[in-house]
Design brief:
By secondary structure, this protein is mainly alpha-helical. The protein contains 8 helices and no strands.
């Protein structure tokens, strides 16, 4: 389900809770709305509101941490690609074909993950592919001296780091926010808004304030889900590190 759809459902549930509370206010007997009853409801909703705020903060922090981790992994991958290209360049002219393959692989990944139409199509990496082919080619090199052997070893080490980063990036996308957390959070906030409507006067100002608050909560949930999907949507990981690496390959 898209972040916009999740945000819309959140807004509908929360605002509907406030409207249900207003309806219950008109339907309940007067003694159910006494000052003592109001105090008990306020205490209960205060506790629930504090818990909901903690969970909301936890989800925001988790989504932001996941997004930042993906960003750092992209930067690290770009740096390793440049170091790999540099090591192969030092090895000798016989690695030109491998370096051309690296350039093609980076260009393909950029076009696939950050296409010009803005519709990212990121897939989980397969066991075989361009990176494995490059590793096979590097292993097939026949170093003639200690310097070339050291450079081959360094290149294989960097390829291993790239393989590790690739699986971290594309093997666990969208898993930092668990659906039960969101469901429980929206349920709690809906109950809180129901209590708002239960004791709020029925006028346009109150309805407008509750509408704005419900929209704000829905926006927060939207941002949480959006940051949990860093390769598609309105908030995406920047392609600048890989673009920079592509521009400097072969130099």
């Amino acid at each position: 389900m898209s972040p916009i759809a999740i945000g819309s459902i959140t807004f509908s549930c929360v605002f509907a809770g406030a409207l249900v509370g207003m309806f219950l206010r008109a339907a309940l007997p007067e003694h159910h709305l006494s000052p003592d009853a109001k105090d008990v409801v306020k205490l209960g909703m205060g506790l629930l509101g504090t818990t909901a705020a903690l969970v909301l903060g936890l989800l925001i922090a988790s989504a932001k941490n996941s997004f930042d981790t993906q960003t750092d992994d992209i930067k690290q991958a770009a740096a390793n690609i440049l170091l790999l290209d540099h090591a192969l360049g030092q090895y000798g002219p016989e690695t030109k074909g491998i370096r051309d393959g690296i350039r093609r692989g980076v260009a393909h990944r950029l076009a696939l993950t950050w296409p010009e139409d803005g519709q990212a199509r990121v897939e989980t990496p397969q066991p075989t592919g361009a990176l494995e082919a490059i590793e096979t080619s590097v292993r097939a090199l026949s170093p003639q001296n200690d310097s070339q052997r050291a450079l081959q070893s360094r290149a294989l080490e960097l390829l291993g780091d790239l393989e590790h980063t690739r699986w971290l990036l594309f093997g666990g996308m969208g898993n930092s926010i668990q659906t039960p957390f969101l469901v429980v959070l929206v349920l709690w906030i809906t109950v809180i808004f129901m209590s708002f409507g239960l004791f709020a006067p029925r006028n346009a100002t109150v309805v407008a304030v509750l509408l704005v608050c419900a929209f704000s909560i829905a926006t927060s949930v939207f941002l949480i889900v959006e940051m949990d999907r860093p390769f598609g949507g309105m908030i995406t990981v920047s392609s600048a590190p890989l673009s920079y690496a592509l521009a400097h390959l072969g130099q």
